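User: Glutamine--fructose-6-phosphate aminotransferase [isomerizing], Hyalomma marginatum:
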Amino acid sequence: MCGIIGVISSDQVVRRILKSLKLLEYRGYDSAGVTTIKGNNIKVRKKLGKLANLAKSMEEEPLEGNIGLGHTRWATHGTPKIENTHPIVTKNSAVVHNGIIENYRELKENLIRAGYKFHGDTDTEIIPNIIDFFQNNGATLIEAVLLCANKLKGAFAIGLLSKSNPDLIIAIKQGSPLIIGLDEEKKSCYLSSDASSISEFCCEVTYLEDGQIGILESNQYKIIDFDGQEVAIKKEKVSNEKCSDLSGFSSFMLKEIYEQPKIIKDIIAKYDEQANKIDFSKINHIKIIACGTSMYAGHIAKLWLEEKYDINTSVEIASEFSTKKNPIINKGELFFFISQSGETADTLASLKLVKKHGGYTIGIINNANSTIAKLVDQLILIEAGIEIAVAATKTFLAQLATFAFISGIEVENLKQSVKLIQQVLKKDKEIYKIVKDGLAKAQKVIFIGRAISYPIALEGALKMKELAYIPAEGIAAGELKHGSIALIDEKTSVIVIAPEDSSFSKIVSNINEIKARSGKTILIACRKVLDQLRHLYDYAIEVPEYISEVTIPFIYTPVLQFIAHHTALLRGNDVDKPRNLAKSVTVE
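Assistant: Predicted structure for Glutamine--fructose-6-phosphate aminotransferase [isomerizing]:
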């Protein structure tokens, strides 16, 4: 969600800004812009839509300067239009900003009373105006920045250029990530909201902490806190992992679906010889907190943890948990926080709340350098590699594989899961044909499952909503008769997850209920079940029989990923960058 790039150098910077912004595209955005200072003039270029639109305008009319900021914006305050696109420029300042300023209305009203005019609808526009206000009243740039930073409430990452100090980039960090890197050889300094976007230029970076301000020059930088006191610089090595190559696939999502067997193999190799490092002997309750796909992984983990350790486990939506004023945290309670990015704002807010009340926290994260990874008491990396497509695929199964080890599940089950996934991947073209014939034009889709298949149904429905833009709902099959069955008619497609497990006879009853109401049924099951229920489905997707119930999510999830991908593709949607969505949701 939104991306910030800043470059100050002895050379022209626009090309490097655009290259780095390109690496941030996966985070999601609806507009993009670049600003530079040349001489005593602030130049800005903004475009709606794809970054390619901005790059094309730069080719037609180059923007010059040795210092600049770039931004990809995902609208939170104000609609996607040029006036709201960053950088936001005033007479003396240019600002890019991630996050939300919670008290912007009050600050904006004060500025309007002081004679300042606003041209857009964003909360960001108050920032350069506040800086200008203090400088117009005699403050130096750094003094103005400090006064501004202490007035803002919320979570924010800010990059600032000022005509008063045209050889500096100012970075302000509170709640949202900001990273500084230095290329000493080329005398260039970089600012970014994501280290991967500048790893080509910098082998070491500094992660700003909350309440810190970075002051960047071309060959050095320093850090001060919100009181103006200089802070020691901590440098960390940054991975230069590259994953922008489609490797022959038509989309990153498809590529990442096919990467899943290898990722689970890698997790097995890493954890196979390791003892479980979590001591559950003194734990009397486990709470899993997450959002979206990560939360559904948490629901499956709950079943495994309860079965293995006989410990009551609950799953909470992070955005709801974080609203609690006084959460009940008991002695002997363990908290898992699951986040693909490690920057999910709702999950981060919940983590801070738990830590404030003394809870012990473990992070299940894919980014070792993320904010959540740095704050938890214990970090467990899923190490799935960078996931480019907005819709999570490989990170979901990597989270499950990691929890399988945490839950003490025999490694042989995971080894068998790798083979089963590989068999499912061979069904790609077959699933495409079924989707083309039976789902591409669907008006509403329901996913049903029981027991461990219910969270899989929830994840399948989420993928369909995210990618195909079709109203979809995941329902515990036993709950159909308690109201949701009213939705079933001849225009309803129902995708049934039907492993031959302990709840199989009941899911058969649910399928009969659906057929009795003219619902169109797509049954996902093994050959034995498909032969047995031939009279009950309109379409069928055959999957291998499960080895143990642990392997069920690894068999059925890739099928649902294919279904969502192919449905979106057939409807003409961008499967890697679905509308209105961001890879890393850094606002609450």
